[in-house]
Specification:
104 residues
């Protein structure tokens, strides 16, 4: 979740700085360079979190089902769930970039 927080702060901090320094034209609506940048960053972050969730889920399946591997399996499943949550949250937080004009 720390990586998601870094993404969140970088995205909204970057939008705030961009709006102060070089705001896009409101006439363009949501189709502008700033929203494109936010969506590109969100898509790459969502893909990275999704890949990490997939790797963690595979690791959980490789742990032997005996009692000795229960802790490792729990950690891998928890990591997979957290990465999937981060991927979903990243996509959800980036949704306004498709619909709303920034800096308005």
């Amino acid at each position: 979740m720390t990586l998601w927080l870094v993404w969140f702060c970088a995205t909204y901090g970057g939008v705030a700085v961009a709006c102060a320094v070089a705001p896009p034209s409101p006439a363009l609506g949501p189709l502008n360079w700033l929203n494109a940048t936010v969506l590109l960053l969100a898509a790459s972050s969502t893909a990275a979190f999704g890949f990490a969730a997939w790797v963690s889920a595979r690791a959980a399946r490789r742990v032997p089902p005996d009692l000795a591997g229960a802790g490792q399996r729990f950690i891998a499943r928890s990591a997979s769930a957290l990465y999937a949550t981060a991927a979903f949250s990243t996509a959800l937080v980036a949704l306004p970039a498709v619909l709303l004009t920034p800096c308005a």
